[in-house]
């Protein structure tokens, strides 16, 4: 048996620590934070970490690759307009704001078309994943009206209402289900 493993316990009993004495499930991990990047930027005297996306690749490689990907997810969830169904339908001015936020934290050449293409691919995946997370939350409710009354974390009531309408539309039902 490996060190630290529990013998004779099943998964349900190990996960029972996630329930408090009132029977309510504890909250999960919370918002994502890019702690390593934030600490580096605080100590680096304005020197940003360099991100390298090699020719023929759509993902970064090197020391800051994971932090770059994490930051794209955080920026996408925070600043991308969820009123649109897909990343390719996000207006260019909104994309420019996101590119500026990326450039503020990383040394990356977004003027290079292949790098911009790769960054857009990554942002598209992050956006799609976030919309999926919103849709899963929407599906936890018994009715459309009930879902509209309880917005997802950090989503304005107005944006959530539009999301709910999108999820309820017959066109989207065929795509998402």
UniProtKB/TrEMBL annotation:
<protein>
    <submittedName>
        <fullName>Uncharacterized protein</fullName>
    </submittedName>
</protein>
<feature type="compositionally biased region" description="Low complexity">
    <location>
        <begin position="10"/>
        <end position="21"/>
    </location>
</feature>
<feature type="region of interest" description="Disordered">
    <location>
        <begin position="1"/>
        <end position="31"/>
    </location>
</feature>
């Amino acid at each position: 048996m490996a060190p630290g493993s529990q013998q004779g316990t099943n998964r349900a009993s190990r996960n029972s620590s996630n329930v408090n004495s009132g029977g309510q499930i504890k909250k999960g991990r919370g918002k994502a934070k890019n702690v390593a990047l934030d600490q580096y930027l605080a100590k680096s005297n304005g020197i940003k970490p360099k991100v390298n996306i090699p020719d023929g690749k759509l993902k970064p490689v090197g020391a800051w690759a994971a932090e770059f990907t994490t930051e794209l997810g955080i920026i996408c969830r925070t600043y991308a307009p969820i009123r649109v169904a897909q990343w390719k339908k996000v207006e260019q001015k909104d994309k420019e704001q996101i590119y500026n936020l990326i450039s503020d934290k990383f040394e990356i050449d977004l003027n290079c078309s292949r790098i911009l293409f790769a960054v857009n691919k990554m942002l598209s995946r992050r956006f799609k994943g976030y919309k999926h997370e919103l849709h899963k939350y929407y599906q936890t409710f018994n009715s459309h009206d009930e879902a509209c009354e309880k917005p997802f974390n950090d989503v304005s009531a107005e944006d959530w209402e539009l999301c709910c309408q999108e999820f309820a539309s017959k066109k989207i039902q065929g795509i998402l289900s």
